[in-house]
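fold-stage: in
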Amino acid sequence: MVLVFLITLSYSSAQPIDPNACWQTIKHPPHECLESIKGIVHGHVHEIKKECCETVSTISDLCWPIIFPSMPYIRFLLKGICTVKYSLH
């Protein structure tokens, strides 16, 4: 119950997120992270490039449900892969 309260508290004070800004972050060339992420979803972990991992680390946690509404844990998977592959934190 406390966890639900803390999650609600952290999101309720957040500014509204512009869906277009979320999409532009991940589609922005030259990284074209969206294609790399689609590859990871299909098991091609080696396809993600360092530039994409750097982009992943800058995406707001509030944008992930907008970009991938049916994949709630994709951000954790990507951040884990990037941390292991490129030692990004």
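fold-stage: in (second)
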Amino acid sequence: MTELRNDMDSDLDQNYSLNSNADPKNMQELTIYVQNLLQNVQDKFQTMSDQIITRIDDMGNRIDDLEKSIADLMNQAGIEGQIPEK
């Protein structure tokens, strides 16, 4: 997570710096600049979304594996299907 945040901070510094040598000089350059900026933001957002979805899928797989392991342990202990009373 820290690595992702550092990447984002670095990209923000590069992409949002209005004091760079590439300052737009006219309306057409400003339009291109803003389009590029929005495309970069969209690309970063998509990358982050993909990473989040992958992590959620991984977590789901781990939970499934944990449930299988618990069921196996319950079978070995002879308490299959018994629900503890509260």
